[in-house]
Each structure stands twice: as structure tokens, then as C-alpha cells.
Design goal:
By secondary structure, this protein is an all-alpha fold. The protein has helices spanning about 20-35, 45-60, 65-70, 75-85, 90-110. It folds into two domains: about 1-45, no CATH class; about 45-110, no CATH class. It is about 60% helix and about 0% strand. This is Tyrosine-type recombinase/integrase.
């Protein structure tokens, strides 16, 4: 789709190659696609789809850095400010991993002595 095109070339354009205008695109393309999918009248927007994609990525175990890059956020702080509540609380998992590493290191030290 973007092979052999300048890096600054638009990916999505009108039929004439002009930049898409959000309102025009939403009315002509997005609304028609939502209607064809039986989703008209549901309040679905491109922005809601973006949030859904981010939420699904997090639920699938995506790292915050991956989600940041996927959304084009300037920093992981920006991503965490918006989606931090969706990342699982992994404190117990980290504590167990640290304890397992401590036990392993203690065993090695005992065996070496």
C-alpha cells in the first residue's frame, strides 16, 4: 500500500489524491461502513474504535511501550494517564518472581560453599 511512495506521502486520500477531511470521510465512508455492518445508531466513532483497539491490545498482554507506539502517543506517560487503569495489577506476580530468583541465588550460593 505504501511501497515506493515518499515517506511523507498520505496513506489515505480522496479518489483524487487530496487529503481526507474528517467530517467528509465520516459522513461518506465511516457512516456507510457502520450502517453496512448493522452498527448505525450505536454511537460508534473512529475514536471509540481507537480506544477499543488499545483496550484489546492491553487485554492481550501488550506492553505499555507497544500500546504507546500503536497509538502514536508522545510518551508512555500519556498512554498510562489514559489507559493505566486497564493494565493488570502485577505486583503479586513480580513479588513471586523476585522471591523465586532469591531462592535460586541462595541455592547456588549454598552449593558453591
Amino acid at each position: 500500500m505504501v511501497e515506493n511512495r515518499p515517506k511523507d506521502a498520505l496513506v489515505f486520500t480522496t479518489k483524487r489524491g487530496a487529503p481526507l477531511r474528517l467530517r467528509n470521510w465520516r459522513n461518506r465512508e465511516f457512516a456507510a461502513a457502520a450502517k453496512a455492518a448493522g452498527l448505525d445508531g450505536t454511537g460508534l466513532t473512529p475514536h471509540k474504535l481507537r480506544h477499543t483497539a488499545a483496550s484489546l491490545a492491553i487485554a492481550a498482554g501488550a506492553d505499555v511501550k507497544v500500546v504507546q507506539q500503536m497509538l502514536g502517543h508522545a510518551s508512555t506517560t500519556m498512554t498510562l494517564d489514559r489507559y493505566g487503569h486497564l493494565f493488570p495489577d502485577r505486583l503479586e506476580e513480580v513479588a513471586e518472581a523476585m522471591d523465586a530468583a532469591r531462592v535460586k541465588a541462595t541455592r547456588r550460593a549454598d552449593e558453591a560453599a
